[in-house]
Design brief:
By secondary structure, this protein is an alpha/beta fold. Helix content is 33%, strand content 30%. The protein binds adenosine-5'-triphosphate (ATP) and magnesium ion. Adenosine-5'-triphosphate binds next to strand 2 and helix 1.
């Protein structure tokens, strides 16, 4: 089953009188399967928040369509089954943590005698139970994020949109949030996560989309996206003369290089050239490419292509 289906979605923001235009999304299509954690990655201004806002109906797309939980996004009733943690959210500072959750529960039409238990359960889930009676103006940024996550879960949503959920949270807190997301997935819920913290995303997401300047440049599993190029660290007996190799090779230290290759055949042909020039190889080590490495190289490649156009 598919929980989010996006087809050819574009968004152009125009200033008044159309003087400036920003293409925030350009013909983006993707699907999110139910019961998975999906990560949307991209540098600042890539269009991640715009995409979530379109799915939640607070920004209108310029063209294209999208469905969530098998309903068109124009059907506002579907939002009752959705949880949302906005980017840079703020809560009324005079409310306590408990008060915030009660307010959002009531706004979302959640009521009944179980509400107090639900509030405690959610505060406990995000590690904030002991701060229940404290006003949110005393909360740190990380505590606000935790409360924001609890708020997103108050209506027991099937599909949860989280815009930079670990923003401002320390490493232990981030691990706790990851565990919460995995638990939500194990309960059969679908999580759609915006982030620029790549190391985070690769630890929890089943699939990932990479956005850059509104364009979907890659989509796949973490494995698909990290194994596109292999990176090796190469130490030689002496420096290579410039232009000797026609390859992606970067000088990283004294006669030490990093090479990026598509496959081992390319690696071997590079070694052949080096050896043919009588240069000895001291060491050659494969480096595991993290999602971060591959993200940077994919964004760089995509920028090179746009510059050539
Ligand atoms: N309401 C708006 N009016 C005009 N331009 C906008 C509006 N909202 C977003 N933009 C522009 O659209 C582009 C995408 O912005 P968006 O906030 O979606 O990016 P993002 O990927 O969430 O970035 P970040 O990582 O910084 O949160 C940016 O160039 C931004 O300036
Ligand atoms: Mg954003």
């Amino acid at each position: 089953m598919i929980s989010v289906e996006i087809k050819n979605l574009s968004k152009v923001f125009e200033s008044r009188f159309g003087r400036t235009k920003v293409q925030a999304l350009n013909n983006v299509s993707l699907n999110v399967r139910s019961g998975t954690i999906y990560g949307l990655l991209g540098p600042n201004g890539a269009g991640k928040t715009t995409l979530i806002k379109i799915l939640l109906g607070s920004v209108y797309p310029t063209s294209g369509s999208a469905r969530i939980l098998n309903e068109d996004i124009a059907n506002y009733k579907i939002r009752a089954k959705i949880g949302y943690l906005p980017e840079n959210h703020k809560f009324p500072p005079f409310l306590t943590g408990e008060g915030v959750l009660r307010l959002f529960a009531e706004l979302k039409g959640v009521n009944g005698k179980d509400i107090n238990n639900k509030i405690d359960e959610l505060l406990d889930l995000v590690g904030m139970l002991k701060w229940k009676k404290v006003k949110v103006k005393k909360y740190s940024k990380g505590m606000m994020q935790r409360l924001g996550l609890a708020q997103a879960l108050v209506n027991n949503p099937q599909l949860i949109f989280l815009d930079e959920p670990t923003d401002g949270i320390d490493p232990i807190g981030r691990k706790e949030i990851r565990d919460i997301l995995i638990n939500l997935k194990n309960e059969g819920k679908t999580v759609f996560l915006n982030s620029h913290l790549l190391s985070e995303v690769e630890l929890v997401c089943d699939r990932i989309a990479m956005l850059d300047k509104g364009n979907l440049i890659r989509e796949g599993t973490v494995e698909d996206l990290t194994t596109s190029k292999q990176i090796y660290s190469l130490k030689l007996e002496k420096e290579l003369s410039p232009g000797l190799l026609n390859a992606e090779i970067f000088h990283t230290g004294d006669a030490t290089y990093q090479i990026k290759v598509n496959d081992t055949a390319e690696l071997n042909s590079i070694i052949d050239v080096i050896r043919a020039h009588g240069i000895n190889i001291i060491s050659l080590n494969p480096k595991k490419t993290s999602l971060e490495d591959s993200f940077i190289s994919i964004i760089e490649d995509s920028n090179k292509l746009t510059q050539k156009k």
